[in-house]
Design goal:
Strand order of the largest sheet: 6-5-4-3-2-1-15-16
Order of helices and strands: EEEHEHEHHHHHHEEEEHHEEHEHEHEHEE
Largest sheet: 8 strands, mixed
Number of helices: 14
Shape: globular
Strand content: 5-15%
Number of strands: 16
Low-confidence stretches: 106-113, 166-177, 204-214, 336-354
Distance between the termini: 28 Å
Mean pLDDT: 82
């Protein structure tokens, strides 16, 4: 076995163990850990896979690299359990998302608007400091204050977004209270906002065919602007003259913003739990990294240090190529509008651009190469950093597209959900003309209402029945989608009937499916 890939079944989330065998050792990389509930099982299975060095006894072999692709809790939270295992699961290095603390944006010496963050401005670094708990509390208070201003805005103009929270006062004051109460409030508000958005079939923030319009984007931006604390009464008075026909869009805009604010706060809770676990393990190197616009960064594995570095790129492998996030994305997403309203287009059905959260857009995109095989890890990215100069164009940096050619295994971004530029970039990389086998890996919850997305379904249909792509799942899709994807789906390796389970691939001169539980 030269390469082994294990995609763990974690519901909505992702956790994947990559193992690359060299002549002197096996290099192991874990990408994401699922949510907190799945993290215990993932840590157990990773510990078993590592095993002791040199046989039946001795210390465990290390994870050479752990990548938290982005700071959504369904990817990051499970890593806390793994890091907390101490010597049971040795970890050399962890990459965390380069997400800026957007509550620092504004005037004064802490202004971080419009530039890529310094390390000390990122959430991971601020939370990892001695005063990290204070920084986390300040972050939650800022988000809670924004929710309060949205409440005032809604009351002022007699809007009703359907996000009223029972006994709201119980969760309103975060000062001096356990932050768990604050996170409870954020979860309740987010749940109510998502129920309101679901009326129009929304998966993420704004969405649904009826709302993906320039008018909705305008209303979201307008509501966000007017709900800011520095907007004067006269400007708000002018808003009161707007026609009643716009009220439904405005109410959905408020719900979208609430959803995004609460998601930021909840994800911050997952992040601080992880960085506090890392503080207890000072031997683990923590990095936050991005590549320059249109310029991938290549790393080789240094056997002496057990780490990936740029000096070892010509070594025996594996080789790692960082494709995202890019410096432009990191800079643009730091003073964020908390709603991913971006340009929409109507080309081929699968090419229609949809919104995506800032956290998703800042996902790591990494290609691994070993034994002339390419494996792509994508998190929840939309591949926005591949676009030349702007997210809205359909022109991509050739040196970025080049690294999507000749792939053997592709983790489908966002669990097969909204992927924005991904399918366009695949087309530019020649994927529809591919003649060699390629495995597409999808991790999502059983019978998901949104995954695989219509975007993925349309793209799969466009490939035709003769395309060599093979799909592997960790959970059974919804019945109607399963029927449409059956021709591309890999057969189960166990007795048919399982609805979910891990998937395992191995390469040794050829690829083979060792384990696949889901039979479409």
């Amino acid at each position: 076995m030269s390469i082994k890939i294990t995609m763990y079944s974690v519901g909505l989330g992702t956790a994947m163990l990559l193992e690359f065998r060299r002549s002197d050792r096996t290099v192991r990389v874990l990408t994401d850990g699922g949510d907190a509930g799945a993290g215990i099982r993932v840590a157990d299975e990773v510990a078993e896979a590592l095993g002791p060095v040199g046989g039946a006894v001795g210390p465990a072999q290390p994870l050479d690299l752990v990548i938290g692709t982005h700071y959504d809790e369904d990817h990051l939270d499970g890593l806390t359990e793994l890091v907390s295992r101490g010597v049971t699961i040795p970890v050399r290095e962890i990459w965390l998302p380069p997400v800026a603390d957007d509550t620092l944006s504004g005037s004064g010496p802490t202004d971080v608007t419009g530039r890529a963050p310094k390390d000390e401005d990122t959430l991971a670094t601020r939370f990892a400091a001695e005063e990290g708990r204070e920084a986390f509390g300040a972050y939650l208070r800022d988000k809670a204050a924004t929710l309060d201003h949205l409440d005032e805005f809604e009351q002022m103009f007699e809007l009703r977004s359907g996000t009223d929270e029972p006994d709201a006062d119980t969760f309103r004051d975060l000062r001096g209270r356990d932050e768990a109460l604050g996170l409870t409030r954020f979860r309740r508000v987010r749940g109510a906002a998502r129920r309101r958005l679901a009326v129009s079939g929304v998966e993420h923030l704004s969405g649904g065919d009826g709302l993906e319009t320039g008018a909705f984007a305008t209303h979201v931006r307008y509501v966000w602007h007017l709900s800011r604390r520095d907007v004067g009464p006269l400007e708000r008075l002018r808003f009161a003259t707007r026609g009643p026909g716009e009220v439904p869009l405005l109410e959905m805009a408020v719900a979208s913003i609430r959803n995004a604010i609460c998601t930021d706060a909840i994800n911050a809770g997952a992040l601080i739990r992880l960085v506090e676990a890392l503080r207890a393990r000072p031997g683990i190197r923590r990095r936050q990294i991005w590549c320059e616009e249109g310029q991938p960064i290549e790393f080789g594995f240094d056997g002496a240090s057990g780490r990936f570095d740029r000096r070892s790129v010509r070594g025996p492998g594996p080789r790692l190529t960082l494709l995202g996030p890019t410096e432009r994305l990191v800079a643009e997403r730091r003073d964020i509008l908390p709603v991913g309203i971006l340009a929409m287009t109507r080309l081929h059905p699968y090419e229609r651009l949809k919104d995506l959260t800032e956290s998703n857009q800042l996902s790591y995109v990494v290609r691994f190469d070993h034994e002339e095989q390419g494996v792509l890890i994508t998190g929840d990215t939309g591949f926005d950093g591949f676009a030349v100069g702007s997210d809205s164009v359909r022109r991509y940096y050739p040196q970025m597209v080049h690294h999507l050619r000749d792939l053997s295994v592709i983790q489908v971004p966002h669990h097969g959900g909204i992927c924005r530029h991904f399918y366009r970039v695949l087309d530019d990389a020649g994927f529809p003309q591919r003649s060699e086998p390629v495995y597409l890996l999808l991790s999502h919850e059983q019978g998901s209402a949104h995954r695989p997305s219509d975007q993925f379904m349309n793209y799969a249909a466009s490939l035709g029945t003769g395309h060599p792509a093979r799909l592997l799942f960790t959970a059974m899709p919804r019945a109607d989608k399963a029927n449409e994807l059956r021709n591309l789906a890999e057969s189960a390796t166990i007795e048919p009937g399982a609805l979910f389970g891990d998937a395992v691939l191995e390469f040794d001169s050829t690829w083979r499916v060792v384990l696949h539980s889901v039979q479409l």
